[in-house]
Amino acid sequence: QVQLVESGGGSVQAGGSLRLSCAASGRTFGIYGWFRQPPGKEREFVAAIRRSGINYYADSVKGRFTISRDNAKNTVYLQMNSLKPEDTAVYHCAAHDKICFGNGCYVTRANYDYWGQGTQVTVSS
Question: How far apart are CA 77 and CA 32, in angstroms?
C-alpha cells in the first residue's frame, strides 16, 4: 500500500525557517509535489520535483522555498526560508506517475493519485 507521511511542521516567527519531510512507502513515483491549504482557502500548488531533480515552484514561494528528493530514501523535502504569515497553511505532499509534459504535470491537483495527511505550518508576525 502506498503511503505518504509528512513531518516537520510547527510554529515559527516571520523570517524563520522550517524543513518539511515526506516519507513515501510502497513504491516510488516520477513526480512528487507539495501543496498547501491556508485556513478558509483552496488547496494550492507550492512546488514539485521529478526523479531527475527537475523542479518547479509557484511564484509565491520562488526564491524562498527549495524542494529536493532523496531517491535512495524515497523521501521528499521542502526547505522553507524567509517564512511569512501568508505561508501559514496545512502542507500536503502528493505523488503521481502520469506521463505528461509541461507545467500542468506539476500544478494540476487532479494529476496526483496519492496524498499525505498534511502537517501544520504556522508563521506569526
Answer: 10
Contact present, 9 and 121 (Cβ < 8 Å): yes
> How deeply is 13 buried, as exposed, middle or buried, from its count of CB atoms within 10 A (0-12, 13-18, 19+)?
exposed
23-45: pLDDT as tens digits: 999 899 999 999 999 999 999 99
CA angle 7, 9, 10 (to 5 degrees): 145
Q: Are 81 and 96 in contact (CB under 8 A)?
A: no
CB atoms within 10 A of CB 1: 6
In the chain, what is the greatest distance between 2 CA atoms, to the nearest angstrom? 42
**pLDDT single digits (tens) 99-114:** 999 999 999 999 999 9
The 10 Å Cβ neighbour count of residue 56 is 18
Q: Which residue's C-alpha cell is 509541461?
A: 102
